[in-house]
């Protein structure tokens, strides 16, 4: 059902000239896959944080809602028509 709703949203965005045509299944898998990867790789994120240079802007710890928003914005950036 989620992919069907996403497909409707993306189709409407294309119809309105706001989005490029994209495959909604792959958009869904990209978003979910990236969120799952973040949620399960805590030990890797902590190691990266430990070896990062002092004062680095690298942020390895964010709430999952912020991670989802960031990923969605990256996806939308690739789909939006400028």
Could you please describe the fold and organization of this structure?
- There is one protein chain.
- With 82 residues, the protein is mainly α.
- Helix content is 70%, strand content 0%.
- It has four helices and no strands.
- It has helices at 2-15, 24-40, 42-51, 64-79.
- The longest helix has 17 residues, at 24-40.
- The relative contact order is 0.16.
The CA-CA distance between the termini, in Å, is: 29 Å
Please provide the count of β strands.
Answer: 0
Task: Work out the strand percent.
Answer: under 5%
Count of DSSP helices?
4
Largest sheet: none
Using only C-alpha atoms, the radius of gyration works out to 16 Å
Q: Which residue ranges are poorly predicted, with pLDDT under 50 across at least 5 consecutive positions?
A: none
């Amino acid at each position: 059902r989620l992919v069907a709703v996403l497909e409707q949203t993306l189709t409407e965005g294309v119809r309105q000239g706001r989005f490029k045509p994209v495959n909604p299944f792959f958009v869904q898998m990209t978003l979910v896959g990236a969120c799952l990867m973040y949620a399960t790789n805590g030990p890797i994120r902590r190691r990266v944080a430990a070896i990062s240079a002092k004062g680095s802007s690298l942020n390895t710890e964010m709430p999952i809602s912020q991670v989802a928003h960031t990923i969605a914005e990256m996806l939308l950036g690739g789909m939006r028509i400028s």
